[in-house]
Structure formats: structure tokens, C-alpha cells
Design goal:
The chain has 300 residues and is of the alpha/beta class. It contains twelve helices and 14 strands. Helices cover 39% and strands 18% of the residues. Strand 4, helix 4 and strand 5 form a beta-alpha-beta unit. Helix 1 packs across helix 7, helix 3 crosses helix 4 and helix 8 runs parallel beside helix 12. It comes from Leifsonia stereocauli.
Amino acid sequence: MSILLTGGAGYIGSAVLERLLAAGHEVSALVRSPENAAIVEAAGATAIIGAADDAEIVRAAAGAAEGVIHLASSPAVDAVFVPAVLAAIEGRDARFVHTGGIWIYGSGDDITEESPFQPLPISGWRAEGQALVNAAPNTAIVAPGVVYGDGSGIVRGLIDAGRGIGVAPTVPLVGDGSQHWTTVHLDDITALFVLAYENRSAHGAYIGASGVNPTVRELGQAIAAAWNISGGVAPESAEASRERLGAAFADALLLDQQASGERARTELGWAPAGASVLDEISSGSYAPSLVADTAAESSV
């Protein structure tokens, strides 16, 4: 029997798929299109073409699997997917690892799994699904911080915004840039998903945070230095960021968040080893020539 994976053609999901296969797991990937089916099959998975918000398809696929890892999380999908999976695995020795997000905790300088939810409109929908998963046995939730690495993730947006605009381009910050983002390398968050799946005693939420929590200004300054952006960084008002990025997304990026991911380290032996986000930027892996045309999932 195989693991049922959603999001296997996406930014984080494709990396989780690679790690699961390398660990010797068989994977069935639920995808929406023949194009994504070709991607996951080329990686070594068995494709199931169908919608993650089709309860009948989800119940059948989850019922035929030894466990489920869900990365294609969204309000419409989770409302159907989570109850369908829980029904399909009830009474069976099957695991379910669900995706949460750091934004649901709001601002805080030491966010842990015990921190109260302070959801914004962009993240509040996660609460119901997480409550259902938490109440069920043999389940765990991985809540990634701001994921970076492989030239993609939210950091990509800061870089793209400062590329070649005018005579003296700048790196526009989100707000004044004083807020911290709690970050995690792509390789490290994929390792945490697999640990949460393989460790059968794992239960509840695990925040995937490296403990490196730079300010947005520090990120912008690293970008400006890496590509000699002559205008440096350009702070703006919160309202200007809301107009530029959309209110819901900007308000999430304006959160001031710091976390260490201590629970995952202590209970699961998670040991983040990826380069810090500032080192990753300085290394050139986010060079403008690597910009992709498709948006990357952030899972926050």
C-alpha cells in the first residue's frame, strides 16, 4: 500500500514526494490535471487524476492507502478533504499528516504550538480543519513558516519587485520592514513532513521554523547587496503595501513573527540544516535569471 499525497506537483509537495520515494515509500499522488500527472509520474509516483474536494474520490483514494499527507490545502479543499480522509482512515492503522500554517498564530516574538490563534482573514479558515485533525488519533499537523529555497517561495516576490525598475531600482519592503518573518528551508520542511508521518507517536501541531527570524528590511538589504541594486531598500506605509499586494496578503506579510520550532526538534529529532535565508540569498540561488513564470505555494 502507498501513501496518498496531495500537492505533489507543487513547490513543497514535489520536494516531499522526492523525499518519500528516497525513503522507500510508494506514493500515489492525487492531481487535478494530466499535466501534473505527468510530473508526479516522472518523479516516480502513481498518479490519481481527480479533485481533492471530491469526497468520493478522496474517500476511495485514502481508503486504499496506508496513510495520507495533505499539502494542497485551501479553504474549499479542506472543507471536503479533511472529513473525507478522517472517515476513510477511521478504525484503521493509517496515518494522516495535515498542513497548517504559521500565519494563524498572528504576531508574536516566541510563537509555539501552545500560542493562541490570532487568525487573519487569509488564515482563519485553517482553524476548523486543524481542530478536526487534532481530535482524531494517528494524526499530526505540520505548520511551516515562510518557506524558501530552490529559488522560490515568498522571498521570490521581494526579489522580483526590485528588478530593473527605473534608473535606480530599489527593493520595495512590505511596510517599513521592521517585522520579522519566521523562516524554514525547503529541504528542512520536507524532512519534517516525513518525520511527522513516520513517527507514529507524533500528534498535534509541529511548527516548522528554523529559528532564523530576519526582519523584512534585512531580507531586502541582502537582496540589494547580492545584485547591486543601487537604490537599496524602499520602505513604504502599511497602507501602500495593502494597495500594492492586496489587503489580505499584505496584512499577513506585515505580521511580526518569531519561532524556534523547538517541539519538532525535541519530540521528532528534527534538525534543520539548510542554509539560512540570508545566506541563501547571498549565495545567488535566487538570481533573477531563475525567475519562474508560475507562482509557488507558500503553505503559510
